[in-house]
Amino acid sequence: MTITLVPYHQDERLPDASFPLPSADVVTITRDFPEGDIWTRLAALYEPVADEVAAQIGAGGVPTVVSGDCLVSHAVLAGVQRAGVDASIVWIDAHGDVHTPETSTSGYLGGMPLRQIVGDHPELLTARLGLRPLPEERALLVDARDLDPAEAAYLATAGIRRASVADAAAPEGPFVLHVDVDVVDRAELPGLRFPVSDGPTAETVTATVRRLLATGRVAALDVACPWHLTQDDGPRRRLLADLLPTP
Predict the structure, then answer these.
(1) Which of 74, 131, 216, 238 stands the most exposed, by the fewest C-beta atoms within 10 Å?
(2) 219, 217, 179: which is closest to 83 by C-alpha?
């Protein structure tokens, strides 16, 4: 098994120790950033990620990408599309990630990727990667128990489907499986950047991920780890070992 590691939170390079990965071949993507705004920098970082995903699919593999935030999902889906795979997306996350630059009160870019995947502001990032936006109906948002008012209002009328972790069902055809580890209840996984209570256990999340992987229709797996570096990485190491496919 090859894991593609993108050790960044946005354009912040994170210590390798932030990612206690199981034993595997690891391809680490790093970048000297060009001049420009944050979107220009992210596009430069994600271009080789998309190429790596496409190459692995072309070689008959199912890419696994691990990073420090959810924005790398743009590169994963772009790479899947470059390989000629018309994939839907299953988005497992404690948050909606459906803000726009206009609705976000914090301006946090990590709260926007799913909305961009379904077509918002393509000029910022998705168009630069050649990513074709998905129809809303081809996105399944799983858990998303912590929504801002603007996100809740959007989802009330959007075509994005929703489900609990336990009830998440695979869409028809190939799909990208995106998992933000903050979907796990904050009491079980300390040190998260954006912890949320009243969530599923790690066991429930990993059981769902394994069930979806077992369909054989996951085109790529994308695991986001938005957590702070801690000395005790035991819970994180166990979670990643359970989430990531074994050879």
Answers:
(1) 216
(2) 219
Q: What whole-number distance in Å separates Cα of residue 9 and Cα of residue 204? A: 26
Look up the domain containing 88 and give its range: 2-243
User: Is the separation of the CB atoms in 226 and 68 below 8 Å?
Assistant: yes
Provide the b/e sequence for 135-174 (b: ≥16 CB within 10 Å): ebebbbbbbbbbbbebbeebbeebebbbbebeebebbeeb
Token duo for residue 115: 């909305």
Q: For 180-236, write each residue's pLDDT tens digit.
A: 999 999 999 999 999 999 999 999 999 999 999 999 999 999 999 999 998 888 999
The Cα 72–Cα 69 span in angstroms is 7
Provide the token pair at 89. 């997306």
Distance of CA 36 to the CA centre of its chain: 24
The string of pLDDT tens digits covering residues 13-70 is 999 899 999 877 999 999 999 999 999 999 999 999 999 999 999 999 999 999 999 9
The Cα 170–Cα 224 span in angstroms is 20
Q: Using only C-alpha atoms, what is the Rg of the chain? A: 16
Residue 189 corresponds to which amino acid? L
Q: How many domains does the chain have?
A: 1
Output the six-digit token pair for 233. 């990485």
* DSSP 3-state of 14: coil
CATH number at residue 92: 3.40.800.10
